[in-house]
């Protein structure tokens, strides 16, 4: 099974007028307007390359970006079994329901306060839990997408395998996933692989993002390997 990591990050771009117009701007630490953009992608954690990338306005939503990448995945990878690993920014009930309905295999780390009622009611450290579509959990979605909120309210809950564990840094937390044939140790090892996406573009000096814009096409990012010699 292929393993991908999905993530997005706000980055500073070359501070030209075109980039500020297309991707937006915000004040830097010196109080000056600087061009920003949101970089996101699906990264193959074993083969160490991006399957799909995107650069959008710096205020764009990460969940919608992830959905766009997933939409491209079938055209890129075909029917090959694939699992996508997400961090704690992707625990939206609507997003997890979207993944469930789309048959997407996933592994997501929860914030400590996420779905606390369900986690407290667990009888073991690894079991299937029904994430309840409570009215309070749908309030934000109701303001942005009333039709989708109504759909989730009618469905009542989303099933998720939930695992409680201690991570390498000593923190305790929970992961949700849907493969049932992987042991807890394998799930933990797989989650570690998510960090492979982190160095790009923020921490790897050998990689830079150049931005191309055009009035007649979608803004397209291009990753280029810099000459290290």
Structural commentary:
With 229 residues, the chain is of the alpha+beta class. It has two domains: 7-61 and 199-229, no CATH class; 81-197, no CATH class. Helices cover 29% and strands 34% of the residues. It is built from eight helices and eleven strands. The strands form two sheets. Strands 1, 2, 3, 4, 5, 6, 7, 8 and 9 form a nine-stranded mixed sheet that branches. It has a two-stranded antiparallel sheet with strand order 10-11. Residues 202-229 have low confidence and may be disordered.
How much helicity do the residues have? 25-40%
Distance between the termini: 36 Å
- Alpha plus pi helix count: 8
Number of strands: 11
> How much is the radius of gyration in Å?
19 Å
Main pleated sheet = 9 strands, mixed
Walk me through the topology.
Blueprint (H helix, E strand, L loop, with lengths): L1 E11 L4 H7 L1 E3 L5 E12 L4 E8 L5 H16 L4 E5 L6 H9 L3 E5 L6 H5 L5 E7 L6 H6 L1 H10 L1 E10 L5 E6 L6 H9 L6 H4 L4 E6 L7 E6 L4
Parallel strand pairs: 1-5, 5-6
Antiparallel strand pairs: 1-3, 2-3, 3-4, 6-9, 7-8, 8-9, 10-11
TL;DR of this structure?
The chain is an alpha+beta fold and 229 residues long.
Jot down its keywords.
229 residues, alpha+beta, 2 domains, nine-stranded mixed sheet, two-stranded antiparallel sheet, 11 strands, 29% helix
């Amino acid at each position: 099974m292929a393993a991908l990591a999905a993530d997005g990050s706000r980055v500073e771009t070359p501070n030209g007028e075109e980039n500020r117009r297309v991707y937006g701007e915000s004040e830097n630490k010196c109080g000056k307007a600087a061009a920003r953009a949101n970089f996101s992608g699906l990264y193959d954690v074993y083969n160490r390359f991006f399957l799909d990338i995107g650069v959008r306005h710096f205020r764009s939503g990460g969940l919608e970006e992830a959905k766009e990448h997933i939409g491209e995945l079938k055209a890129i990878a075909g029917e090959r079994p694939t699992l996508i690993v997400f961090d704690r920014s992707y625990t939206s009930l609507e997003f997890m329901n979207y993944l469930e309905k789309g048959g997407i295999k996933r592994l997501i780390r929860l914030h400590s306060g996420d779905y606390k009622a369900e986690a407290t009611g667990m009888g073991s450290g690894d079991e299937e839990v029904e994430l309840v579509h409570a009215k309070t959990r749908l309030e934000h979605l109701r303001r942005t997408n009333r039709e989708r909120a109504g759909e989730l309210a009618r469905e009542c809950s989303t099933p998720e395998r939930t695992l409680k564990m201690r991570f390498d840094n000593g923190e305790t937390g929970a992961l949700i996933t849907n493969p049932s044939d992987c042991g807890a140790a394998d799930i933990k090892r797989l989650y570690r692989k998510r960090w492979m996406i982190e160095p790009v573009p923020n921490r790897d000096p050998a990689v830079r993002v150049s931005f191309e814009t055009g009035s007649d096409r979608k803004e397209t990012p291009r990753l280029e390997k810099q000459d290290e010699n």
